[in-house]
Write a structure and sequence with these properties.
By secondary structure, this protein is of the alpha/beta class. The chain has eleven helices and nine strands.
Length: 333
């Protein structure tokens, strides 16, 4: 194998066996709520496109893509390995994503779970403004791109135009210590631009520019909600806000990829080979020790058969003890 081929082999993205093998920050309560909102829309006959602004390596996109309806579009917008549009965004990417975020890795992960890729726009999310995507066509939008205040404000403006009146928008990192820009833009949209919170998790804000109460009632009635999820009912400037916390009990299993069975079989084969190799090494150690023990016994036996040693033993066995003692003292003195 050439050096170039070896480098290509080493750089080939790993195949994920399950969603947990896809790098990213997408916790179980959020996976459950993505499924909950998307399933709820489908059961209610709500149709529309799907959008993710900032995808990293595809962990949340894989879940969203499972709910793509016939004739509808799923659009993913991310810089991936392109250059950032400004110095602040470039610094943000260099600090967090530049070494790992590539479009090929995203595509590899996504196609492990789906037959075809979403529509990918490899560009800043600001390019979605100004009619790049159809207004009012989307039922679910996930914003997880830049954490800079000005960028998040722009992403929210895009989402407000793109969403159906009853659509759901999700913002990541709305309360993290290292993302104050997301917090500022989120709550500014709530207090000044009509965004209504539905429910909060530790990491994500779920809201709508429509009526949040129907979804909140269904959550409070625990319709389709996992057993381990606990709810808290808060009030914020006259608006109800729900919080979800608790355990992951009852949340559906982590999705398996198309590679799962093959990778599991390969892992089982490697484990069997490792176990067999260890057994062979242990057998060789036992055989080598047995050979050393046998050689040691043979050496001792040969030593005992030497004529001088035989004579000593015979003398010791046949001569009276007094004579034997005298002989020993004579040899020593």
């Amino acid at each position: 194998m050439t050096d170039a081929a070896l480098t290509a082999e080493q750089q080939r993205p790993a195949e994920p066996a399950s969603l947990n093998d896809v790098p990213g920050w997408f916790w179980e309560h959020d996976r459950h709520l993505f499924e909950w909102f998307l399933n709820r829309q489908e059961k209610a006959g709500v149709t529309g496109d799907l959008l993710e602004m900032g995808a990293y390596l595809g962990r949340s996109a894989i879940v969203i893509g499972s709910h793509l309806q016939p004739g509808k579009a799923f659009t993913v917008c991310d810089l991936f390995d392109s250059d950032a549009p400004d110095d602040e965004n470039a610094a943000e990417m260099d600090a967090s994503y530049r070494k790992t975020l590539t479009r090929s890795a995203f595509e590899n992960n996504y196609l492990a779970f789906h037959d075809r890729l979403p529509e990918i726009i490899q560009a800043p999310t600001s390019t979605l403004a100004g009619g790049r995507i159809p207004a009012g066509a989307f039922r679910f939008i996930h914003i997880d791109a830049s954490h800079l205040y000005e960028h998040v404000v722009g992403d929210l403006q895009v989402a407000r135009t793109a969403l159906r009146s009853d659509g759901v928008v999700v913002l990541d990192d709305y309360r993290s210590q290292h993302t104050p820009g997301v917090a500022a833009a989120t709550w500014e949209a709530v207090f000044n631009h009509g965004l209504k919170p539905i429910v909060l998790t530790e990491g994500k804000f779920y809201g709508t520019w429509g009526d949040p109460e129907p979804a909140q009632r269904d959550l409070l009635d625990r319709i389709g909600l996992a057993k381990g999820c606990e709810l808290a009912n808060e009030a914020l400037n006259g608006q109800r806000v729900l919080r979800i916390f608790g355990t992951s009990e009852g949340i559906g299993p982590v999705p398996a990829s198309r590679h799962h069975d093959r990778l599991a079989a390969e892992a089982a084969r490697r484990e069997a080979e490792r176990t067999a190799d260890e057994a062979r090494r242990e057998l060789r150690r036992e055989q080598e020790q047995a050979a050393r023990d046998l050689a040691d016994r043979r050496a001792r036996a040969a030593e005992r058969r030497r004529p001088a040693n035989v004579a000593k033993r015979v003398a010791g066995d046949l001569l009276p003890p007094v004579v034997t003692s005298v002989i020993r003292r004579a040899r020593q003195g």
